[in-house]
Amino acid sequence: MSSEWQIYIVSCSDGSFYTGIAKDVLRRIDEHNQDDLKAARYTRARRPVRLIYKELVATRSEAAKREHEIKKMSRKEKEVLVKKAPHEQGFFD
Description:
Number of domains: 1
CATH architecture: 3-Layer(aba) Sandwich
Number of strands: 3
Helix content: 25-40%
Distance between the termini: 23 Å
Oligomer: single chain
Largest sheet: 3 strands, antiparallel
CATH class: Alpha Beta
């Protein structure tokens, strides 16, 4: 497993966005979609979720700060962030 932290954005089934941090984003997405004990309360009622963005940082502190910055963004600003991301970081279809 990577020692890097990742900030991620998922698109929920209702069209809303959820932002979080994790060391293993794919495992975390599985938890959001399948595990009621580990899924965020917000995403439990909005399944399935789909990964649309991720960003790597070196430490948990950096990840938490960046997550906070993203959560303060408007929906439009988040859409621009996702659209401008390098292909490997942007929408994951």
